[in-house]
Amino acid sequence: MARRRKGNPVHGWVNFDKPLGMTSTQAVGKVRWIFGAQKAGHAGTLDPLASGVLPIALGDATKTMPYLVEAKKTYEVEIKWGERTDTLDAEGDIIAVSDVRPTEQAITDILPEFIGEISQIPPAYSAIKIDGKRAYDLARAGAVPKMIPRPVQIDDLEILAVYKNSAKLRVDCGKGTYIRSLARDMAFVLGTEGSVKTLRRTRVGAFIEDASFSLDALEELRHKARATEGLLPLSTALDDIPVLAVNENEQFDLKQGRAIVLHPSIFTSLKASFRPRIIGDRDASRMVLAKFEGVEIALCEARAGQLSPKRVFNL
């Protein structure tokens, strides 16, 4: 007999405003407890010393997490000039110093160098695996992990404020971008040293800061038995994927894992909305979200005039 999973069948996303000092794993555990959910996960780790938007998936929403990992993100970072730490943030030990403090004009002048696809060396203190071990575990053990440069996408950089010893910037970027590495590299180009003083994530795809819930707010909703008010549809993570309304017979077939035949005009219409998309190492450019009476039924692939279910939701 299958073992019954603890918790309630809660499905959806929580736009969580992670506080400073909390790990992403701790955040998932706390939100799962608040909702009494059977299953939970997060899309995109946020360091303990960073705060802000951490989308947390509950129940079947975890099936959509790979799509949110690919989403664009926005950060607000304050870079402290004149000091570089081994962790590239305020937690580490200072390993290099400089008396140079860049002007606002100097910072403005170098921004174009960091917009677009750039090559970036991840921090030694990161979760990247090297020969099966986390880089931060190797670094903490005194080893010097060899970090390989990799391409990342920076869509935009904006100066928000300039202080005597630091500057605050807004960063719009793609997946895999390390803001700590960006701070280090910008400082090098400016002829100084630098590390992250504060970091806050304000957007992950459709999840934005203004619509997020703090831990206190979620606990208050739970106390009032209104926790579901903090729950978003699982399709929130799929805001840029084509949606197709199916009928009752079609939704039954999809639920059973069977493909359905599309009318040629519908298939042609869907093809017009496809765009290049890679999820992990898989081509997901033809993915479609099937709904019946407004309820998510399945993530499907449209090919050869058919819609084949790839992720079925049990809502």
Summarize the structure.
The protein has 315 residues and is of the alpha+beta class. The protein has helices at residues 24-35, 65-69, 104-110, 135-140, 179-189, 215-223, 248-255, 264-273; strands at 12-18, 40-42, 50-58, 73-81, 83-85, 94-97, 116-120, 129-130, 133-134, 150-162, 166-173, 194-204, 207-208, 243-245, 260-261, 278-279, 282-283, 287-292, 295-303, 306-312.
Please characterize this protein's 3D structure:
The protein folds into three domains: 89 residues, Pseudouridine synthase (2-Layer Sandwich), CATH 3.30.2350.10; 132 residues, 2-Layer Sandwich (Pseudouridine synthase); 72 residues, Archaeosine Trna-guanine Transglycosylase, Chain: A, domain 4 (Roll), CATH 2.30.130.60. The mean pLDDT is 91. It is an alpha+beta fold and 315 residues long. The strands form five sheets. Strands 1, 2, 3, 4, 7, 10, 11, 12 and 13 form a nine-stranded mixed sheet that branches. It has a five-stranded mixed sheet with strand order 14-18-19-20-15. The protein is 22% helix and 35% strand. The protein is globular, with a radius of gyration of 22 Å. The protein contains eight helices and 20 strands.
